[in-house]
Amino acid sequence: PYASNKYSNVTLLTVLHHCDHWEKVLEEAVRVCSDNIVIIESVFINRGEFVANMFFDWIWNRVVYKDVNVPFNFQEPSKWEQMFEDLGLEIRQSIDLGYDSPMTPEHHWLFVLGKSG
């Protein structure tokens, strides 16, 4: 319901891996944003991290919170970057944030994106 370019900055905090159609969510963020799209997303670097992400995502979002969508759309940082570029976005920053806690060792990454051109 918001006008195009209404906001200078839009933040998506660990959202995309919960979306069945993450591209549509990101396209809407791009539409309403005039400058920076800031994304913090759960990522994996190796198979062990991918399995851990799936396990903890399922435990927290299906057992604890019960009704959060968990399509397991985890990606490696380079894969997210490629998908962002495929949508015509400029990657302004890509920063490894590391693990958030020993109990739920999710690996997070910060992407700051902008509209190309």
Task: Write a concise synopsis of the structure shown.
This protein is α+β, with helices and mostly antiparallel strands and 117 residues long. It has helices at 22-32, 47-64, 77-86, and strands spanning 7-13, 33-43, 89-99, 107-115.
SSE topology sketch:
Layout: E1 7-13, H1 22-32, E2 33-43, H2 47-64, H3 77-86, E3 89-99, E4 107-115
Parallel strand pairs: 1-2
Antiparallel strand pairs: 2-4, 3-4
Account of the 3D structure:
The protein is about 35% helix and about 30% strand. The chain is α+β, with helices and mostly antiparallel strands and about 120 residues long. It has a four-stranded mixed beta sheet with strand order 1-2-4-3.
Output the radius of gyration. Answer: 15 Å
- How much of the sequence lies in strands comes to 25-35%
**Strand order, largest beta sheet:** 1-2-4-3
> Termini separation (Å)?
25 Å
Q: Could you say which overall geometry the principal axes of the C-alpha atoms support?
A: globular
DSSP E strands, number? 4
Derived from helix and strand composition plus strand pairing, the structural class reads alpha+beta
Task: Give the count of helical stretches.
Answer: 3
Summarize model confidence as the mean pLDDT: 91
- Uncertain stretches: none
- Helical content stands at 25-40%
| Main sheet summary | 4 strands, mixed
Give the helices and strands as they follow along the chain: EHEHHEE
